[in-house]
Amino acid sequence: MTQRAIAFRAREQAILNAAEYLLLELGDETITIEMIAERVGIAKGTIYKHFQSKDELILQLLIAYETELATTLFEAAKSNDLAQIIQAYFSFRLATPEKHLLFERLENKLAATRRTLRPYFARLYFIRKSYLRQMLPFVTQHLQQQNSPMTARDYLTAGWALVQGTAAILHSSFYQRYLGDRQGLLAALLQSLLALGNQHYDTPVSTLKE
């Protein structure tokens, strides 16, 4: 790689870092390309050499976030231990709950309003599906060992729901005052999800109707 290419990538990463910082500090409705450029110390037009719009920049942040999670889970999967994989997932998502919640809100907002971003969403969803496929055999084996009627999809959905609720609690100024040991909370969540496969229902969860 040439020095010019290295400098280009370094500048692009600096733009992403600045955008993430401003998003977490101010929210997406407030920040502008001008503000990002000012924080990096470059001209506004320089950002457009890397990203066509603020929306594309945000989606690239989401893609980088999911890529990092995928790498984390692939490493955890080498243990062949579902508990370690789940712990890696919980730890990653809940290390910065405000970031997780913000990125999810931004994803939903952009998905509903920006058809021109479909190629970026395709990449984002491909990454997410890749680590879900990686987790699937471990979840299936766990449920079979427990002779559980729960489907792997329902189990993974339950894990996602636990993360969502916990992220909201950890991000809440009210509930933070009542939290005890954060690591103890994460350990309790892990045990709850592992025990979930032991539950038996007269009707499989996936067939329940509203």
Task: Give a quick set of tags describing it.
210 residues; mainly alpha; Arc Repressor Mutant, subunit A; Tetracycline Repressor, domain 2; 73% helix; globular; HTH-type_TetR-like_transc_reg; transcription cis-regulatory region binding; DNA-binding transcription factor activity; Homeodomain-like_sf; HTH_TetR
What does this structure look like?
- One of its GO terms (molecular function) is transcription cis-regulatory region binding.
- InterPro entries: Homeodomain-like_sf, HTH-type_TetR-like_transc_reg, HTH_TetR.
- 73% of the residues lie in helices and 0% in strands.
- With 210 residues, the protein is an all-alpha fold.
- It folds into 2 domains: 1-51, Orthogonal Bundle (Arc Repressor Mutant, subunit A); 53-198, Tetracycline Repressor, domain 2 (Orthogonal Bundle), CATH 1.10.357.10.
